[in-house]
Amino acid sequence: MASKLYVGGLPYSTSEDDLKEAFAKAGTVESATIISDRMSGRSKGFGFVEMSTDDESQAAIKMWDGQDFGGRTLKVDEARPMKERTQ
Fold it and tell me: pTM for this structure?
């Protein structure tokens, strides 16, 4: 079962390939996505990484949470389900 991680504090210049390459040090990365602003297309400074197993997810959290990445400190934790939006 794949486990999805929230990754906050990303440098705005980080690409999805950069994110995938960094987290591959902890195991097999199923996907890496950086969230962008709809209007400007610029990174919002956070994203999600999906690891192939829960053990690899835990290894990635231990490896990257609180660590410097491109001059910014990462916050890595298990992703929570998205809340429903009301307009």
Answer: 0.89
